[in-house]
Amino acid sequence: MRLKITQGPTSCKALLLLWGLLAAGSMSAQVAEKTIRGAVRDELSAPVAGATVLVPGTQRGTTTNAAGTFEFRVPRSAQGVQVSFP
Predict the structure, then answer these.
(1) Is residue 64 a contact partner of residue 36, using CB atoms and an 8 Å limit?
(2) Going by C-beta distance under 8 Å and a sequence separation of 6 or more, which residues neighbour residue 40?
(3) Are 50 and 64 contacting, i.e. CB atoms less than 8 angstroms apart?
(4) Alpha-carbon torsion 31, 33, 37, 38, what sign?
(5) 12-31 pLDDT, tens per residue?
(6) pTM for this structure?
(7) Reduced to 3 states, what is the DSSP secondary structure of residue 2?
(8) Phi and psi at residue 84, in whole multiples of 5°?
(9) In the chain, how many H helices and how many E strands?
(10) What angle do CA 29, 72, 43 make, to 5 degrees?
(11) Distance CA 48, CA 41 (A)
């Protein structure tokens, strides 16, 4: 079997079209998500480091840092988070 490699404007157009489709797919995935930020505090308003923050019904989550804060991307449809600490 022989493959024909085309050079010139046709190949450039195909590459640009492919790049455009990949970029559009990437942008639509980003639009379907949002970034959430927050802080977990205890009853005395002290930061809670190492708390688990999850989006219910998904496997998306993170843990809080030493300052008790978190930030991560979630589906745009997410309505809230679940926090747990051992």
Answers:
(1) no
(2) 47, 48, 51, 53, 64, 68, 69, 70, 83, 85
(3) yes
(4) positive
(5) 455 445 455 555 555 555 57
(6) 0.62
(7) coil
(8) -140, 150
(9) 1, 5
(10) 150
(11) 5
